[in-house]
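FAQ
Q: What does a multi-component entry look like?
A: The components come first, one per line:
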Amino acid sequence: MFGFTRTQTIAFLVMLVLIALAPFFLYPVFLMRVLCMALFACAFNLMLGYVGLLSFGHAAYFGMGAYITGWTMKFWHVDASVAIALGGLTGAILGLCLGYLAIRRSGIYFAMITLALAQMVYFFCLQAPFTGGEDGIQQVPRGKLFGFIDLSNDMTMYWVVASIFLAGFLLIHRIIHSPFGQVLKGIRENEPRAVSLGYRTDDYKLIAFVLSCTLSGLAGGTKALVFGIATLTDVNYPMSGEVVLMVLLGGLGTVFGPTMGAMILMTMENYLAEFGAWVTVIQGVIFMVCVLAFRRGVIGEIGGLFKLKL
Amino acid sequence: MSDTILETEGLTREFSGFVAVDSVDLRVKKGTIHALIGPNGAGKTTCFNLLTSFLPATKGRIRFKGRDITGMKPAMVARLGLIRSFQISAVFPHLTVLENVRLALQRARGASFDFWRSEDVLTRYHDRARELIADVGLAGIEESVVADLPYGHKRALEIATTLALDPEMMLLDEPTAGMAHGDVDRIVELIQRVRVGRTILMVEHNLSVVEGLCDTITVLTRGKVLAEGDYATVSKNPEVIAAYLGSADA
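Then the predicted structure of the entire assembly, as tokens:
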């Protein structure tokens, strides 16, 4: 199913069991944060790991998704499902506009253009009245899902977040293992050859970019709903850096790597919080160790060790 | 003029002052194998890049099947049936042999934007892909990852991938470069087999390959056409000999 290999199916089932059992042992709000960031990281991995393009401005799509979901929940009082969907749609539209401009370049130029565009989105959010500037949008109600599922209960919210994450995770896996995904692999491997076979490679890259941004917006929207806030932190460049870190730490271009990376990084932020500013330093050191010693990331190294595709 | 498939008129490309291709008038007849030869730096590969729109021409026109293709997007040129290969072996290294060929079949037959469907739908291309792979003598290694294959196999695979698009015209950039003798013979034999119903324009350094295969030869030096004709004519041309050996007026 979904093009999983046998080991991947087993790993997926393990992940499923962990997601089902975790809220009975750990704080659900923390777990929801992990899942939102994991979805964001998976979406980012679609670009970096499978198209080979480093977008350095993915916070823009995540953050704008969060703002739109937060705003529509708070002021339009829409259903939670609609608000989250609007978050995803925001990511898609923004991704289409900015991606259209950025996709013509690759490598460092692509990273720079996406960063510049994302910074423009950041300044827009800083100045625009609807975002609440420095305060952000606060006290966003969780509301109801489909009109009857009350989300104010953490456990209920957890199952919803887990479902969104799993749906996104499976969608990405399907994208990678689709006819479209095959073309993406070809483009990553040898773009001039793909062009010479008659593929309009920019179109494929743009579609992949929009899909990645949609899921990023979805992750941002879900996060806004869980925590009841959407702030400048979500849309600023450290968020873009964090998602790169999560993907590299977990394992670039692996199926389970981004999720693992998100888990490690969120756990560190959560349980090392007592060290204050030192968390950033510790993160930096871990990042360096990762780049120097295990370049394929945690999951990539484990996969390499046992000769498995994870 | 209906027997001319590809034609250029005053094709020129300058790189900041340096003229790499200088008003080249090329006429390739349908159904022939046409060679483009010349010393290093003569502009052969630049010529290929211009013909397939990988580089925009500074001046001049290119017509393919009577249609002006100057300035067209490279993917569109490919879709018209003018498919090129590259000097360095152009394969998708981390895909399998089968996937390489399938990627070409998939483009020709559509459905490549379907990101919501399982790649299982691609199995319908497997029979044709296996045929093409067997055709170039690679049967039995369909599932091997291309990066692990010897060079000769990669070049053969590249031709199989190009053939998968059933192109009317193929541009082969040094198909036998860097090959061992046995492999060269195999590629020559392969080109002879696949030329039926197609036109081939090739850049080639190996003159015995050119002699055996090509109907017409165009010699380029310093971006200009020096001579044109069949092998016997061209090889006796004193200017050509001078250009190759660099003795006469150097």
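Q: Is there any commentary attached?
A: Sometimes. For this entry: The CA atoms of residues 83 and 162 of chain B lie 7 Å apart.
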